[in-house]
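Q: My labmate handed me this sequence with no annotations at all. I'd like to see what the chain might look like in three dimensions before we decide whether it's worth expressing. Could you predict it?
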Amino acid sequence: MNTRSYTFRDAELQSKPLRLINHVGQALSHFGLKFPKISEQSIVDQAVARAKCSDFGSDSYREPLGQYLSSITNEAELNTFGRIVSKGMLVNALANRLKLIDWHKKNPNAKKETIKQPWIILGLPRTGTSLLSILLGLSPMARPLQHWEAANPMPPADLARAGEDPRITECAKDIDALLNINPPLGAMHPFGATIAEECTAVFMYDLRTVGMETVGFAPSYGQWLSNADMTSAYDLHKLTLQALQSTQPTDQWVLKSPNHLWCLDELLAAYPDARIIWTHRNPSTVIPSIASLTNALQWPGTTRRDPKPAAEDWKLKMSNAIDKGVTFDDKQKSNWCYHLRYDDLIANPISAVDNIYRHFGVELGELQQQRIKKWVEHRPQNTFGRHHYSAEDFGWTSEQLGEEFEVYSRRYC
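A: Here is what I predict for the chain of 413 residues:
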């Protein structure tokens, strides 16, 4: 077990070749040259070239692409490495979209697949959503969306060869490269090619996701996103699950993302029989953790060294998510979802899963109990180091955050 403590400041770019790239990029900028070129057309052209097809299905990606590029251009203070990463993210997302649309055109029967009663976990980041998705996915009847599948889903792997798909190795190498560049991330968030992935990775195909805001500081894009219609993103989300399910029959999907909290109406329109679990943790702990993780993700790609702007932006984002979620909760029947306290999940994972199952009329089998117990034994907290953060890092105090989010904490935590 790694006993080292990491903070977001440890995310400083250490790679000599990448630092050299930044120096060269900075020199070129003095002559008015920005590398690489980031424009809507260059991104679309590269995505089409990579996917080898050109039908996007609709132009729903156009507005968020324009919003995001304007935001990172004016707000993110990207260095050359950050520009490379941001452009690569956008090109890859649109290439995945193109390949998804193209695959469905060639396999029209896949749209007949029914995504039945999916488990959908939502809540603020850092509230146990990742852990819970892994534990629910340990059921022999369940299947989480895996990291490698979301990163490169088409064509969907068939059941006979899914376990040895070369994309798993490719994804694992990409993750290793990321953690070599930015070691603190391993202590801050679980990574793995076959680990449960967030739905934000699929929403990326429509460029409508808070995940894009972790790569670069983009508050104006975030403001636009908070009121954007997510229907088209959920359409692509469902197409992805239908494609994956068509080659690997699936009884229960296990899905999770904080992103769902902003758009519960669109979520339930897409999956009206979803079994929803909302995780809760005291925001006075959650908000500094989110601020630290966000800064760690952005740190290597920006020249900005003040952590407060990103921290304040995400605090506002979390407040908005809470307001939207609570407003929705107030209008629903009491059993529309299961509210799970983070402390209860950590204290007794088996009991937490059992209570969730009971709420939805499902029995927790002995095999899954044994699998949960073994997983917890084999993957304890702090396996890859400790994530150290404090409210004071971002100009706050725990008391201030406690007062700001007191109503939510008293009701749910």
